[in-house]
Design goal:
15 strands, alpha/beta, 9-stranded mixed beta sheet, about 325 residues, single chain, UDP-N-acetylmuramoyl-L-alanine:D-glutamate ligase
Amino acid sequence: MPAVPTVRRLTPASRLPALVIGEALVDIIAGPDGPQRSHPGGSPANVALGLGRLGHPVRLATRLGRDHFGSLVQKHLEDSGVDLAPGSVVDAATSTATAVLDSAGAANYTFDITWALSKAVEEALRDGPPAHVHAGSIATALSPGADQVFSTLHALRASATISYDPNLRPALLRPAEQERERVEQLVAISDVVKASEEDLAWLHPDENPDKTAAHWAQNGPSLVVLTLGAKGARAWWRHGCQDIAPVPVQVVDTVGAGDAFMAGLTSRLLHAGLLGGGLGVKAATARVALHAATDTNRLPAVLGDALAVAARTAALTCTREGADPPTAAELMV
């Protein structure tokens, strides 16, 4: 297997402001035989956590309750440098997701969740648009908050690059044929999309996931990444595709692995100037640069590096319980 590049420390010029919009909750994890354990989670919150640990200033627009679980999640995020958008803490219960692990450490989820952004969060998002914004999972699918997220992404696209991870949760969704239009509208306005093989198999059960990923890469995003679990990942762009080798590790569980992949990939693309803006660089400039980088039959080295680092970030997350992504220092080892 080819060597996986280590991560260089981020320079001040690469520390671009990022906004993540989406759910933060508590994962209640139950193994096949062991007792339940509670960990802060939520796919977008995990991405924000990963970006914070990799040295990026990041703000999370979310919904947390003023309760024990809410305090647990808030401290977890703030300890890793994640700033909560004003109005993210409300007088309500914090949402939970119960993950039942099988013997291989893979998780199946059930949810107790309410998703909506407070008026205070919506107002805060209009104050100082970010250079890059990430959204996905429940936040882009569950009403009433999904409509708020959709309109916010449209409004921010003029000034920010966008990444999107459907991270579909069928237990909370309508049938696949009713969900496709919204998912593909979000794909169309995004610059980078990551989806799992399971996501695409559920969304298009009669179509090979590779075919769906290739189609998406022709209809909006410059880069589409299909994660394949233990088999690694596959990147698609307008002119081709390339496999990303898995990083072999001793798996404790897979909770948050896909989110760690997304954080690692976004971090490296920000670092390379292929996402984001700020510091005199407009988001449109980064969008054009990413588009140009994928206007080739061969994946450029800078994107290969970003994807390999993303794979390593996900692999290290699998070596410990819960959504616990690595820091930049850990990735340098």
